[in-house]
Amino acid sequence: MKQERVTINDHFWNYYRDLVKNVMIPYQWRVLNDEENIATSGKTSYYATEKSHALENLRIAAGLTNGEFHGQWFQDSDVYKWLEAAAYVLGGSEDQGLRQRVDQVIDLIAAAQQDDGYLDTYFQLKEPTRKLQHVAKSHELYCMGHYIEAGCALYQAIDSQKALDIAVKMADFIDAHFGPEEGKLHGYPGHPEIELALMKLADTTQNEKYLKLAAYMVNTRGTQPNFFTEQLQTTAAKEESYWGGKEPALGYFQADVPVREIEMAEGHAVRMVYLLTGMAHVARETHDQSLQAACERLYHDIVDRQMYVTGGVGATANGEAFTFDNDLPNDTAYAETCASCGMVFFLKQMLENQPDAQYADVMERELFNGTISGMALDGQHFFYVNPLEVDPVSCAMDPNKHHVLPTRPTWLACACCPPNLARLLSSLDRYVYTVHGDTVYLDQFISSQLVLDNGVQVEQQSNYPWDGQVTITVTAPQATDMALGIRMPEWCHGAVRLTENGVAVPYEMQRGYMVLAGTYEATTTYVLDLPMQAEQVTANPAVKADIGKVALQRGPIVYCLEEVDNGPHLPWVTLSPDAQLTAVTDESSLSIPFKAIETVGKRLPVAATGYVARNATPVNLRFVPYFAWANRMVGEMLVWVKQR
Ligand code: FUB
Ligand code: ZN
Questions:
Q1: Are 636 and 560 in contact (CB under 8 A)?
Q2: Which of 140, 275, 338, 420 most suits a substitution to test ligand 1, by most atoms within 8 Å of the C-beta?
Q3: Inter-residue contact 24 to 422 (CB < 8 Å)
Q4: Distance between CA 244 and CA 108 in Å, rounded?
Q5: DSSP class of 144
């Protein structure tokens, strides 16, 4: 069986998907087209200071206007990610205005692409003699990878052969320049991305050439002699830096050892998880068990030891990178929005390789927490960095926290995250189900309808994530032997009930899924009841930053305290282990209805100087979902609260 289409109709995710369609995509278009005033007075590179110029760069490269390149040297990728998001939106509904805009951008990209397939406006306009000369930092393959992803999405969504042809031409260019053959570069990208994109292209075109190239890049990475070290000997690589920094160590690029030998998640976090996405896909298509084993090992290192409770990964701003096991500082966390998006991409590949609910559990954590915290509820303000503890004064005064912002800017000078989130949310239908053989796995509890290629429909309806009751309906036009695998979420500790007409249905637990096999005919309706209570969760004691602290979680949602609800000095608050936690529906404080958690804690009195006995006094506390923080006023925020 195969998935034919998934239609999402979910009150929670519809909010976000409508936001993408109606606000984010038009807004991001205006930003990329320099029609939006995004200038801010921010002092870090996480603020936009001028304009995007991303579409203008393409116009100049296409010879349609004159001017100079402006922006990051990988600015093109912002347009491609926007285009990919637009493709998913168009795949779900007609929108003539957007369609026209998309067609114009495809034409523009075709015009900017060189005859040999190469496209990178930075190098075409500013450094034509340095093309492919310094692949460790150049991002040429990163940008083209993002276009290839967009090209595949456009072909699938709106049947744009032109968009796919550009992608094929690009991939053929890369294939002509990289590979084991003499005269080619025996290399791979500094920022993984092209591997996962080539795998998508291989799936879309059914051309094995792209699979081979992706596998070559994965398998060659980190081998000796080291490609990056060798390229560095060339003159072009030694010329003045366009990326404004020193040459990082090879581990930053996950290129110090061959990928199968990487012991711990290392280096730049987005690079790591994009690499893993490509590795997992290559492992599946080439039946490569050692590559799959490497993916599993690194998955465990990330999820068991280097991931925040919010799903955020990448603990340090220094190199936007992983550090070491159990090092998860809250107030200097990096946890880039793109890294959480990348985790979702990786986890999907792992689910395609093997049905195992642990991957879907982590995906859920990312979806409801670490990804969407990257965007304000208005769809026009974005976090790049997603900390778990914020004190605006400390952010302003402490140079070690220059990357931590207490409020989401309108855009970012390095604008990788906003369009990444747009493409993830607009393609959410791809992450709800996985089909293996005759079994349909319900990975995510997102109200939706799945249509299979044999005509069977699987529908689920719920008020998730606020309520744990899910109605699942299977409709089969003719008698069909199949199975359902329903994820038993890791957060659920109570007595789960699965019933049909009020009668308990037997199921078998297989790798975290409740599996029901049978012959389906006409309509079968199950009701799943997942007890959902607010809980205090603790971190592994090896995580020093969280010792003696608890975070509140209800279902998949991680909560936080905000100053707007609880006053300042949040670290002065404590919670007792038996504090009663009450979930309260709130339909008016934010533009999305949600459940807050109310409880009583204690708080130290206002500081008097000196070391004296102080008695904490009771205080009413209100926790809100982490994803929704910083949507009201600028103030403190805290996820991990002291327990006493
Ligand atoms: O290098 C391209 C993108 O910019 C990365 O994925 C992000 O981490 C940011 O560094
Ligand atoms: Zn990013």
A1: no
A2: 338
A3: yes
A4: 29
A5: H
Question: DSSP strand E in 21-149: where?
Answer: none
Which of 376, 378, 379, 425 is closest to 405 using CA atoms?
A: 376
Contacts of 556 (CB under 8 A, 6+ apart): 364, 365, 367, 368, 369, 465, 489, 491
- Pull the structure tokens for residue 58: 């393409």
Local structure of 528: helix, strand or coil: strand
Contact 274, 344 (CB under 8 A): no
What residues have CB less than 8 Å from 550, skipping those under 6 apart?
Answer: 536, 537, 538, 575, 577, 640, 641, 643
DSSP code, position 519 = E
Contact 264, 300 (CB under 8 A): no
Predicted TM-score of the model (pTM): 0.98
Looking at the CA of residue 74, tell me the nearest atom of ligand 1. 2
* Nearest by Cα to 340 from 376, 305, 377, 365: 365
193 CB within 6 A, ligand 1: no
What is the per-residue pLDDT across 372-423, written as a single tens digit (0 to 9) for each? 999 999 999 999 999 999 999 999 999 999 999 999 999 998 999 999 999 9
DSSP-derived letter for residue 130 is G
pLDDT recorded at residue 177: 98
Q: How far apart are CA 540 and CA 305, in angstroms?
A: 9
pLDDT in tens, 49-73: 679 999 999 999 999 999 999 999 9
- Measured N-to-C along each axis, helices 54-61 and 76-92 cross at an angle, to the nearest 10 degrees, of 100
Angle CA 42–44–45, to nearest 5? 110
